[in-house]
TrEMBL record:
Keywords: DNA damage, DNA excision, DNA repair, Excision nuclease, Hydrolase, SOS response. InterPro entries: GIY-YIG_endonuc, GIY-YIG_endonuc_sf, GIY-YIG_UvrC_Cho, UvrABC_protein_C. One of its GO terms (cellular component) is excinuclease repair complex. PROSITE patterns: GIY_YIG. GO terms for molecular function: hydrolase activity; nuclease activity. This is Excinuclease cho. GO terms for biological process: nucleotide-excision repair; SOS response. It comes from Sphaerotilus hippei. Residues 32-107 form the GIY-YIG domain.
C-alpha cells in the first residue's frame, strides 16, 4: 500500500510547486537574458534575496519549482530584475548590490570584511591586513583570507604539503639546540636540525606560495570592460579590481571613475581570470576615447 508522505505541522507541501499568484506577472515579464534578479519582501529597503543568471527567466523559475525555497516564496511580495549584456556584468552587479543592500538570505557576499594576506618579510611569512595597505597595488601578496586565523591555517597546510618547518615559518617557537616537533614525525624537511640548507627550504616555501600570489592591478588607472549582446553594449568601469558601475558610452565613464576604488575581493575573483587571460574586450578610458 502506498503511504502518503508525512507532513510537518503547519507546512503545506502541496503548495510548494504552485506559482504564487502575485508573482506571476514578474515571471511573465522575466527575459531569457543575463542579469540580476531581486526577491522583495515587506521591507522595500532590505531585499530578501539577490541572485544572478545568464538566463533570468529560467533561473527565477527554478526557484519557484524548488521545494527547499518555499519559505522564500511565502515571504516574497514581488520580484524585480536588472538586465545586463553579459555574464560578467551580472556577476559584478550582483556582488555590488548584495554589499549595498544586505539582503536577508544572502550570506556569502553580504559583508565587506577586512581582508588578510601573507607576505614574506626577511624570508618569513607574516600576515598583513587590507586596512594597512592597498591590496590592488601592493606586490608579493599571497592569498586572500577573511581573518588572521584563516591565513595562518593556510600557511600550516602549505607546511604540511611541502614539509616546511613550523619554526622557520614563525608558527612554532623553537627551543635552542632542539628540532621542531614535526621533524621527529618526519613531517618537516629538517631545516631546524641542519638536515637541509636554508635555500632549499626557502625554495619550497616560494613554490608553495606561488599559486596563491595576488595579482597587482595591471593598468595605470581605470579601464572599461566591454560586453556586447547584439546591438546592446555595456562598459563596466573597473579600477584596482573594484567595479565602479556600468555605462553605455565611454564619455559617461569619467563620472564613475571619481568613486573611491579600494581593493575588492569579489571583484578580484570575478575579474582576475578574464582580464589577465585576455578573454574580454578592454578599452582605455581617457578624454576622447571611442568605441
Amino acid at each position: 500500500m502506498h503511504l502518503p508522505r508525512r507532513r510537518q505541522p503547519g507546512f503545506e507541501s502541496d503548495r510548494i510547486h504552485e506559482y504564487p499568484v502575485h508573482l506571476r506577472e514578474a515571471i511573465a515579464d522575466m527575459p531569457a537574458a543575463p542579469g540580476v534578479y531581486i526577491f522583495h519582501g515587506d521591507d522595500e529597503r532590505m531585499p530578501l534575496y539577490i541572485g544572478k543568471s545568464v538566463n533570468l527567466r529560467s533561473r527565477v523559475l527554478s526557484h519557484l519549482r524548488n521545494p527547499d525555497e518555499a519559505r522564500l516564496l511565502r515571504q516574497t511580495r514581488r520580484i524585480s530584475h536588472i538586465r545586463t549584456t553579459g555574464e560578467i556584468g551580472a556577476l559584478l552587479l550582483e556582488a555590488q548590490l548584495i554589499k549595498r543592500q544586505q539582503p536577508l538570505l544572502n550570506q556569502k557576499l553580504r559583508r565587506n570584511r577586512q581582508l588578510c594576506s601573507l607576505r614574506l618579510h626577511d624570508g618569513v611569512p607574516e600576515v598583513v591586513h587590507s586596512r594597512d595597505m592597498n591590496f590592488a597595488t601592493e606586490p608579493d601578496l599571497h592569498g586572500l583570507f577573511s581573518s588572521r586565523q584563516a591565513a595562518l591555517e593556510r600557511l600550516r597546510d602549505l607546511a604540511d604539503e611541502h614539509r616546511l618547518c613550523y619554526g622557520a615559518l614563525g608558527l612554532e617557537r623553537l627551543v635552542p639546540g632542539r628540532a621542531c616537533f614535526r621533524a621527529m614525525l618526519h613531517r618537516c624537511g629538517g631545516l631546524c636540525r641542519g638536515d637541509e640548507a636554508p635555500q632549499a627550504h626557502h625554495q619550497r616555501l616560494l613554490d608553495g606560495l606561488a599559486h596563491l600570489r595576488v595579482a597587482c592591478w595591471p593598468h595605470p588607472g581605470a579601464i572599461g570592460l566591454v560586453e556586447r549582446d547584439g546591438e546592446d553594449l555595456q562598459i563596466h568601469v573597473i579600477r584596482n579590481w573594484c567595479y565602479l558601475g556600468s555605462v553605455t558610452e565611454a564619455s559617461q565613464a569619467a563620472a564613475l571613475d571619481r568613486v573611491a576604488a579600494d581593493f575588492d575581493a569579489d571583484g578580484y575573483r570575478i575579474l582576475c581570470g578574464p582580464l589577465l587571460g585576455g578573454q574580454v574586450e578592454i578599452m582605455a578610458l581617457h578624454a576622447g576615447a571611442s568605441l
